[in-house]
Amino acid sequence: xxxxxxxxxxLVSYLIGTINFAKILSWNVKHKDITKVxxxxxxxxxxxxSFGFAMALVAFLAEVVKAGVVCFVARLILPEYGSLIYxxxxxxxxxxxxxxxxxxFKGGKGVACFAGVFLFSQIWYVALAWFVVCFILFxxxxxxxxxxxxxxxxxxxxxxxxxxxxxDPFALAVTIIVWLLILLTVIRHRSxxxxxxxxxxxxxxxxxxxxxxxKKKKGEEIISEEILEHKPEQEIVIEKxxxxxxxxxxxxxxxxxxxxxxxxxxxxxxEGK
Length: 273
Prior knowledge:
This protein is mainly α. It has helices spanning about 1-15, 20-30, 45-50, 55-75, 80-100, 110-120, 125-140, 145-165, 170-190, 190-195, 205-215, 225-230, 250-270.
C-alpha cells in the first residue's frame, strides 16, 4: 500500500509542478510568450531580464509557494514518512517544473521550486536567512547562475548537517535526494557555467532593475535598455529642393488657402462699398 501512496504523491506533485507561473504571468499581464522572449527560459531570471523586478518577484514567489505547499501537504497527509515524503514530493515538483509533459518536456531550471522546498522545510529559518544574504550578494555579483547555485548548495549543506545531527530516521535518503537535486540543477545550468568559464555570461544588472522598479512606483516612466536596443530609430525625411515651376502639396495647399482668403477679402470690400 505504501508504494501506491508514493506513486500518487509523485504523480500529483509532478502535475502541479508543470504549472509554470512565468508563462501564465507573461501571457496574461504582458500578452507575450516568455519562451519567445529574452533567453527563452520560462523562469524567474528571464522574467527579470524581460519584464522587470516586479514581474520576476511575483513569478518567483508563486513558484516558491507552489513547491513548498505541495511538499508540506504531502508530509501532512503521510506524517509517518516525515522528511522522506516531504523531499520525495519535492523531487517531482521540480521535475514537473523542469520537464513539463505539456510543453514537450521543455521547462525552467527549477531554482524557485527548489528554494520553495527549502523555505517550507524544517530548516526554513536557515533558508530564509541565507536568502537575504544571497539577495544582498546579487547586488554585487550580477551573475544569476552563481547566486542560484550558491543559495541552493548552501541550503543543501545546512539540511545535510541538520538531518544527521538531529538523528532523522530518513537522513540517508534525504541526503541522497537533496544532492541529486543539486546535481540536476547544476546540469540544467551547464550552458551558463560554460559561458562563465569562457567569460561570455551576461550580467543581470540587478541594481538597475531594482532602481527601475522603485522609480516606477514613484510614477516616473522608465524605458529599459532592452526596449531601447530593439526600438527602431525615428525616421527623418529630408525634402529635396524642387525644380523651378514645381511645388510640393503643402505649398500648393498654402497657395490655394491664400487665394481663397484674398477673394473673400475682395468680396467683403465690394459689399462695404
